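Re-run with default settings, no changes from the original entry. Doing this only to confirm the output is reproducible before filing.
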Amino acid sequence: LAHLQLQPSQGLQHRGAGARHERAPEQHDRRHQRPRSERAHVRRVEQHDADEPEREADDAERRVLGEDHPNRISTYCSIGQTLLAKGDVDGAIRVYEDAVAICRKSTRVDAGTKANTMSKLAAALVTAKRFDEAEKSLLEAQPILLSLYGPKHYRTVRAANALVSLYEATGQPEKAAQWRATAEGRELPQTTK
């Protein structure tokens, strides 16, 4: 992390803008003496490079709700969005995959949240050129988004635009044109596979 430093007795500490992440050899050994769940969380924070307020919110939610509570989905999605904005597509995918895993595990997550989270993951997968995974996720999410929100809602349009990008990148102009028309509200999508 560019703005955090691990201190032996204090955990992650803010060092200011432009600072580099450094760890002395004796600090490396202390990190592995932490409980397994805390080591996993420190590793996840290091990997995701979340902004300070988001990291603090993530820490508080994790302590109060636990790792797999459905309310954590919005935090994961916010962190994923931040990582995408910073250009860390792989980090964003990991975070979105965590959010989708919570969605699939929990019976308390509504269909719209599941479909929206899957759509966000798929858009990141398209950016990473992992097209097969992205297509599967988008084609699963799109009908749910359409039935819940209608064809002109931003979530439905975002998923359709991700399909346009996917099909353009994979040389399928007919499918791209169909989903472009859907994204622009000119026609409803046909069931495709």
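The chain has nine helices and two strands. The first strand starts at residue 4 and ends at 7.
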